[in-house]
Amino acid sequence: MWQSEYTERFQRFREILKSFKSPVIVHHYDTDGISSAAIMKQYLTELGKEPEIITLRGLNRFNIDEIREIPEKIVLDLGTNSIEELGEALVIDHHDPRIENKYNNLLNAFFIGLDGDKGISSSGLTSIVLNRGEGIGLLGAIGDRQYPFRSTNAELLESAMRYGDVIKTTDLKVYGKYRRPMFVMLGYMFRDFAVDYRQAIRFISKLGIKQKRGEEWRDYMSLTHQERFIFLRAVLEKASKLGMLDDIYGDVYVLRSFREIDMNELTSIVNATGREGKARVGMEIVLGKRDSLREGLGIWKKYQRNLRDAIRYAEENMEYDRDIIYIDGRGKIDPSILGVVLSILSEGETKTIVGVSDDQTGILKVSIRSRTVNVGQIINEIISNNRDWEGGGHEGAGGFTILEDDLDRLMLSIREMIRRAEHQSF
Ligand SMILES: [Mn+2]
């Protein structure tokens, strides 16, 4: 396994880390990036160093110049394809490399025979290199949609469970066990309850379970042993009648530090901290700080609110034309959630959706979601004709980072390419 074949390489990485006087951690702002940074920070701190942390939504030609000048930096969950422009850096990443494997300072999962797409995340890889934090590494994997765990993640899980870092239980697998009213959680499970919450509330009342404590709705995790037994029996009976028992009940994983909240829900709280510009809180949460979890919950609620507002704004401002649906979210939709908003709106849409947002620096983010054309291909083609635009994507999703002045020109190209692609497919 990796331990034997690549031990020396990991060793060399650790030697360089030890030699750093004032290390700077540059990391991606999602759960995987935050978890990678947390594992790295803990390692460096234990060596007596005080790493500085820089959180990025992405590396692009507009910010890479500043990053390049930073000495002794460790770049996590980013940087593979910018390795030549990064200056002095150690990079740990799992994004698909479009470059050759010839850089000693780059550790990409794909270059050491691992499946960076489905089998290992950056935080998992960081935990392997530093020999610690496997549980945290798995949070990053969940954040990157690598759950259920397979391949290297499954091996990490095994070792995390052996150390007691991660604990497996059998429970409801659904989202919303923590800090959501029970009737809301039931709505995530059963369509009839989602359509009419009053039915869910009645369902719980009939079991003789109190749903409120004072003014607050209770959540599933706050049920007593006895109450949980009664509640589960009724829920599982309903699920089994619908033939969906396996979907809602089974293996659930928790971290030793937060046994009351399963790793999937913890991941969404950490993700929210990054999106709301509070990655530092997310890092403390994954390192097990209880006070930070409380703070993180507040941030998570705010994020949910912002997301709801952004979706509503986008829904009310969809401009339909011949080729696309256009949403101008400048000043209204934060670039960190533009992609999420478009993905949600594209659910019932056959037309390609293009959205724009800005972050007050004159740099725009343009996101595309489509069910009819290959977004990645269109973006690559546009970029190959316009070298000062930056972007990338895959089949159904992708986007650009551009200067505000270029928006009209870019939109012309996008429309033209979509017209052409749709024409070809008929
Ligand atoms: Mn990642």
Explain the overall architecture:
There is one protein chain. Helix 12 (263-275) packs antiparallel against helix 13 (279-286). The chain has three domains: 2-163, inorganic pyrophosphatase (n-terminal core), CATH 3.90.1640.30; 166-255, no CATH class; 318-424, Diaminopimelate Epimerase, Chain A, domain 1 (Roll). The longest helix is centred in the last third of the chain and has 27 residues, at 290-316. The chain starts with a helix and ends with a helix. 47% of the residues lie in helices and 18% in strands. The protein contains 17 helices and 16 strands. It is globular and about 65 Å long. The chain is an alpha/beta fold and 426 residues long. The strands form four sheets. The protein has a six-stranded mixed sheet, with helices on both faces. A five-stranded parallel sheet has the order 2-1-3-4-5. Manganese (II) ion is lined by residues 32, 77, 94, 121-122, 144.
Draw up the topology in text.
Elements: H1 2-19, E1 24-28, H2 31-46, E2 52-56, H3 64-68, E3 73-76, E4 89-93, E5 106-108, H4 122-130, H5 134-143, H6 151-162, E6 166-172, H7 182-189, H8 191-195, H9 197-206, E7 212-213, E8 216-217, H10 225-241, H11 245-248, E9 249-255, E10 258-262, H12 263-275, H13 279-286, H14 290-316, E11 319-320, E12 324-328, H15 335-345, E13 352-358, E14 363-369, H16 375-385, E15 390-393, E16 397-403, H17 407-424
Parallel strand pairs: 1-2, 1-3, 3-4, 4-5, 12-13
Antiparallel strand pairs: 6-9, 7-8, 9-10, 11-12, 13-14, 14-16, 15-16
Helix pairs in contact: 2-4, 2-5, 2-13, 4-5, 5-6, 5-12, 7-9, 12-13, 12-14, 13-14, 14-15
The chain binds manganese (II) ion.
Residues 32, 77, 94, 121-122, 144 line the site of manganese (II) ion (MN).
